[in-house]
Amino acid sequence: MNLSYASRVEHDRFPETFIHVEGELGSVDLAPDCWLRVTTERGTEKRRCPPPDYAWADPRYALVHSSIVACHRNLLNALQTDTTPETSAADNLKTLKLVQAAYDSARTKQAVETF
Questions:
Q1: Measuring CA to CA, how many Å separate 22 from each of 4, 31, 42, 112?
Q2: Is the pLDDT of residue 43 over 80?
Q3: CB 64 within 8 A of CB 54
Q4: Is residue 36's pLDDT more than 90?
Q5: What is the DSSP secondary-structure string of 52-75?
Q6: In 21, 86, 87, 89, which residue has its Cα 20 to 30 A from 73's Cα atom?
Q7: Is the dihedral of CA 76, 53, 47, 61 positive or negative?
Q8: Angle at the Cα of 30 (from 6 to 7), degrees rounded to 5?
Q9: Above pLDDT 70, what percent of the chain?
Q10: What angle is formed at CA 47 by the lines to CA 59 and CA 86, rounded to 5 degrees?
Q11: C-alpha dihedral over 88, 92, 98, 99, to 10 degrees?
Q12: What average pLDDT score do residues 40-62 get?
């Protein structure tokens, strides 16, 4: 798996988010200008999936802003209904453990078990 926030590319479109995921049955791409492409043995389906527009938001960061709005909406709903949000404190602690393990692995050049 490759993941980078700082790769040097010919046409840098920061802060847009791009991702390519390959699986046994095909692949999914989130490409420039919010194009989603799903490729299977039947071919490629594509559609544009732009984030919502917010008057207060910088359009260059539309994906980031829309994710924050959705996250806050979910957290508020969880507080109001006494339910567990999509991303709980327990999830965040697991993420911190994974990040620390990644740093430890890089420092020691060894695989690190976390869970």
A1: 16, 14, 15, 25
A2: yes
A3: no
A4: yes
A5: PP-TTS-GGGHHHHHHHHHHHHHH
A6: 21
A7: negative
A8: 10
A9: 92
A10: 65
A11: 160
A12: 91
pTM for the model: 0.57
Query: Which amino acid is it at 63?
Result: L
The answer for residues whose C-beta is within 8 angstroms of residue 67's C-beta and 6 or more apart is: 51
Q: Is the pLDDT of residue 4 over 70?
A: no
Do the strands 19-23 and 26-31 form a parallel or antiparallel pair, or are they unpaired? Answer: antiparallel
Q: State residue 7 phi and psi, 5-degree precision.
A: -65, 145
Q: What is the mean pLDDT of residues 25-49?
A: 94
CB-count burial class (<10 Å; 0-12, 13-18, 19+) for 47? exposed
Q: What is the pLDDT of residue 75?
A: 93
Model pLDDT, residue 2: 58
Amino acid at 40: T
- Do the Cβ atoms of 85 and 78 come closer than 8 Å? yes
Distance of alpha carbon 52 from alpha carbon 19, whole angstroms? 19
